[in-house]
Amino acid sequence: MVDEIGQNGELSFTAMKTMLQRVEQRLTQPTTLQTQASKLHGTAEKTPPSRVPRLAGKIPNESYITTASGVARVDPAKTISENERRLAGQSRPIDVGGDAVKKTRTKTPSSTAGLDWFDLPRTNLTPELKRDLQLLKMRSTWDPKRHYKNDSRRPLVPEYSQVGTIIEGPTEHFSSRISKRDRKKSFVEEIRAAEDSSGRFKKKSIEIQASKTSGRRAFYNKLKQKRSKRSIRS
């Protein structure tokens, strides 16, 4: 080693190579303590398992690329197996998921709302029922002193509904019973009866007409009549 050192005190290439080989041999060879322990226990020295994963398939011996007259070509018989080539020529069924099947199905409306709603039947829309539903929609205009929750988001005609008559109990004869003369067959008759007794809508229409005719010829003619009456009295 001393002879291989140059004049500048640097190692030559061959000296560095031999040193690296010795270091590699020392690292690969087992130490004296490991050999003594294996001899005492009587176990043979085991090689460490390889960390490189093995390939699952077999590597073909023949290459699928061939050269003919300086041109590289791919042999399809070696790249695709016979089974895959046979399946490619056949029609294969497509597995459709559950969500796609539900979308393709036509939804048939049921005749009732289900057990949770006591089998409420589907709405049988008649002209009378449609008129009553429209009046219920405008119930806030019946009485200005009553306030109702705005239900503009709901449709006018419900999908499931049923019309019935509320029968009072025997204990409500004087508290919650409506007399026979005040009972009506529909909402329209109830509103007409309430209007006949109060006259609210008539008064409201007169006020609207008066506000619309103010400042016009009809308003000026009424003013002249009032003035003429005053002059006659005086």
Describe this structure in words.
It is a single chain. The protein has helices at 13-28, 32-41, 76-79, 82-88, 98-104, 127-137, 187-198, 200-213, 217-233; strands spanning 65-68, 71-74. The longest helix is centred in the C-terminal third of the chain and has 17 residues, at 217-233. With 234 residues, the protein is mainly alpha-helical. The chain is built from nine helices and two strands, in the order H-H-E-E-H-H-H-H-H-H-H. The model has no long low-confidence stretch (mean pLDDT 76). The radius of gyration is 52 Å and the shape is elongated. A two-stranded antiparallel ribbon has the order 1-2. Helices cover 42% and strands 3% of the residues.
